[in-house]
Fold this protein.
Amino acid sequence: MDTALSTERLEVMQHVGKDLNVLMAEYLKPIEENWQPSDFLPDSSDENFLSEVKLLQESCRELPYDYMAVLIGDTITEEALPTYESWLMDVIGVNQVEEPSSWAAWVRSWTAEENRHGDLLNKYLYLSGRVNMRAMEVSTQFLIADGFDIGTDRDPYRNFIYTSFQELATNVSHRRTATLAKKFGNPHLSKICGVIASDEMRHAKAYKDFVRRILEVDPSELLLALEDMMRKKIVMPAHFLRESGVKMGDTFSHFSDAAQRLGVYTTNDYIEILDSLLIEWEIGAVRNINERAEKARDYLMALPDRLKRIADRTRIPELQYEFSWIK
């Protein structure tokens, strides 16, 4: 990104950042009042601990293979938070040395809330008795070590577009795993996935608000950033997911197939999220923009229908892959 554009981005981030204290109070919860993983797990100091674990394991015994694969893949995705935090800390306008109480404070506080998700799911899966924990942990370490490239560079506009989309996608995924857990006779797991989904929606509202505020002061550049992200496609944060002895990214495609088969996260969900963002940000009504931005707006407004036509021709692989994670 050239120097002039970087300077403009920095000015806009400082403008939006003036309200960060209010925004953090609206979209994040006080730590003392927030739920913690231990609230949903058997207490190891309790005399009933072993009997509770046995009940937990019995409730997991009949969970389908694809469901376990998706739940483990979701857990690994959540556990790769060090990558996401370090990426966002490098975004233009985020300065943890000179301005540690503004955008850097948001990134740290958001990370602190998100960190509970992987922590809770990891412990639950460990107690379930259905998971080869070492294989899962190897995949988590690979995902953090491999990092990711989500196509946003250091641009806050692209990063906030990405996080708006991604938080909505994880909300859908966790909400569906909650619904399915209930269907499969596991209300405890359903509650766990449900509280995580609720966090994701709250965080999505925050990032959508950031984008809306940027749109008010720099509409042309925001539209161009949105067009660029959608032309490249929003890649999932775990797109480099792999297992031991498997090439980087190969396991992700199998995880994605399982999610499609289950209906946890599908191509149609991707399209619906895009459609919802275009409506919420009122992209079709954006005015006072330059010619390039007008073309970007027209492209974006036509994109959902175009993607629907492609999705109608897409077939979901029925062949089940054998994951090293599942016992």
